[in-house]
Amino acid sequence: MLGSFVVHSGMGTPPISSRTVQIEELTSASSSESLHAARVLLLEYGQFVVAQRGAAQFCFGLLEKESARLPVSYLEQNGGALLAHVDNQPAGFVAWRALPEQSVPNAWEMKRLWVRPIARGLKLGKQLTEEVIARARAANKSAMYLDTVPESMASAYTMYLELGFQPCPPYNDNEMDGITYLRKPLA
User: Fold this and answer.
1) How far apart are alpha carbons 126 and 158 in whole angstroms?
2) Ramachandran angles phi, psi of 87, nearest 5°
3) What are the φ/ψ torsions at residue 60 (nearest 5 degrees)?
4) Which among 144, 59, 159 has a CA at the least distance from the CA of 95?
5) Could you give phi then psi for residue 75, rounded to 5 degrees?
6) Kind of pairing between the strands at 19-25 and 89-98
7) Helix 60-68 and helix 32-50, axial crossing angle in degrees, nearest 10
8) Nearest to 114 by CA among 144, 93, 96, 84
9) β-bridge pairing 89-98 and 80-86
10) Neighbours of 171 (CB within 10 A)
11) What is the set of domains in the chain, with CATH numbers?
């Protein structure tokens, strides 16, 4: 585990019992329970995306293959994945990978940010995003990229803008309707 800390949703009075958040970086040595939880969360993300308007181009079959190979599917792309627990229950997932040097040098792409509805309002998505940004900075990356669909992921889009991501030209061939490309300079 990377660490454990207590969070409050910031909505109204803090809960009587605090909620504990733990974030784990997945490795080939991660427990089978952690890998299973991450795979389930990744597939939940995929089911959400497929249910959105304009998601016809999203291939769930490829996501299933990606999920089955976690964390190797990201480690072999010079990236990684994080799993978040809230009160010892799997609650969030995010991954990242290096972008091709010939097209976007010295940069990472953040992928698959997903927070279960029961953990929303705890700023878990922000914590996971900040963890990936911190790793990119530690790896001396010059920028972090991502793509998102603001119409169906409005809260995430707003959070990305608040964290300093800015609209940028397309950097990949993802052609979903309504997609927006974002970049955060890290230097």
Assistant:
1) 11
2) 50, 45
3) -65, -30
4) 144
5) -60, -40
6) unpaired
7) 170
8) 93
9) antiparallel
10) 19
11) 19-185 (3.40.630.30)
Q: What is the mean pLDDT of residues 63-68?
A: 87
Write out pLDDT tens, residues 123-177: 999 999 999 999 999 999 999 999 998 988 899 999 999 999 999 999 988 767 7
Alpha-carbon gap, residue 115 to 84, rounded angstroms: 9
Look at residue 62 and give its three-state secondary structure.
Answer: helix
DSSP-based three-state secondary structure for 181: strand
133/19 Cα distance (integer angstroms): 24
CB hemisphere CA count around 158 (13 angstroms): 6
Write out the DSSP string of 78-106. Answer: T-EEEEEEETTEEEEEEEEEEPPTTTSTT
What is the gyration radius of the CA atoms in the chain, in angstroms?
16
> H/E element holding 127?
helix 124-138
Per the listing, tokens 């959105």 go with: 52
